[in-house]
Design brief:
Blueprint: E1 2-5, E2 11-15, E3 21-25, E4 28-34, E5 38-42, H1 48-57, E6 63-65, H2 67-75
Parallel strand pairs: 5-6
Antiparallel strand pairs: 1-2, 2-3, 3-4, 4-5
Length: 77
């Protein structure tokens, strides 16, 4: 796993060993990139700041994903 803080904010990117990249806002996974599938954003509204983090990271087309699915992606690590 590799952690990367984004521009002195509470947003962090985590590169997982399986190739996925997960965007955290504070300590909550809120979006991800899955190789060969694309970008996904949570279907749950957290806050205006979290929405800004997601929108800065995902440029272009994305799909939505259940928050519980994002939570499960990180539970095994």
């Amino acid at each position: 796993m590799k952690f990367e803080r984004i521009n002195n904010t509470t947003a962090t990117l985590v590169d997982m060993d399986d190739g996925k990249t997960i965007l955290f806002s504070s300590s909550t996974p809120v979006a991800c990139f899955i190789p060969n599938m694309g970008y996904y954003r949570t279907n749950k509204y957290w806050s205006r700041t979290t929405t800004k983090h997601i929108n800065k990271w995902i440029i272009g087309k994305s799909n939505t994903i259940e928050q519980s699915a994002l939570d499960m992606m990180v539970r095994g690590y």
